[in-house]
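Ticket #4471: structure output looks truncated?

Reporter: J.K.
Steps to reproduce: submitted the chain below (326 residues) through the standard prediction queue, then opened the result file.
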Amino acid sequence: MDNESHVPASPANANAGMSSDSSGLTNEEASARLEKYGPNEIEGKKQSLLLKLASKFVGAIPLMLYLVIAISLYLGEVIDAYVVAGLVVFNGLASFFEEYKADNTLELLKKKLSVIVSVKRGGTWTTVPSSMIVPGDTIRVKIGNVIAADAKIIESNYLSVDQSMLTGESLPVDKNLGDIVFSSSIVKGGEATCIVSATGKNTNFGKTAELVKLAKPKTHLENNVLKILKYLMLLDVFLIVAVFVASLFFGISLFSIIPFALLILLTSVPVALPASFTVAMAYGTQVLSSKNILVTRLEAIEEASTINILCLDKTGTIREFRKTSL
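Returned output as attached by the reporter:
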């Protein structure tokens, strides 16, 4: 089987610095390329804390509660408006602080798990964090190492790597002189000297990660809440139509019926539903964290709880999962 058949070859910056000489890059060249190509890491799209907090007050569920507040104020139910506003604030702040805490924990874990790479700079072998690797660097990999970037083998007697993280192959793959080893692969045997061809988001692993970021499906929780609201709104429309028909039959003024119709709409909206979900998921986050499970999004708990079939291959790659639905 062709070792490279599962993964597309050389990424965007593959041509950068492939002709590095035996002494490796100088510190000045490495600094210039680091400035040009950026750190060798896949960064998530960072959002300011203010925007992240504001996002918790935008969406279908908050808009539903804003509608309830407006109707309550129109009907003179000021206390009800305050209660619902309090629920909106509680819901947003609870979700924000749980995710903020998870993000901080995740950043700390990333720092602790930072990969150290053996690299040749100015004719001398040294070690640097993987984030400092640039295209054209000469690196040395050996058994047990996590390969920090896509690189071409220029010197090796034998090298076997586990690239299941990228290709899903269950067995290690032998790599020969001139072959490309891929970022996030693990060396299972042998050692080799390689020249880095791509770093960060330009690696094959990085491109896969970028595709995952583009996927923004609606959560199972959002779909179910919207489904509940749809049925409630249909019931509201039926009741309001019935009230107007009755008012015409009994000769009651339509203007006197409007507040009553708005009251029907107000009482049918489950204002405590979002807060109840948030409290339940925040509690679930605490329970999971006590078992060393990190939850980065509150909705992820509910999403995972709906799975009833999970299919994995021998490498742990998720092949298929099926979820229950209401």
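Triage note (M.O.): checked the attachment and the full token line is present. The first strand starts at residue 116 and ends at 121.
Status: closed, working as intended.
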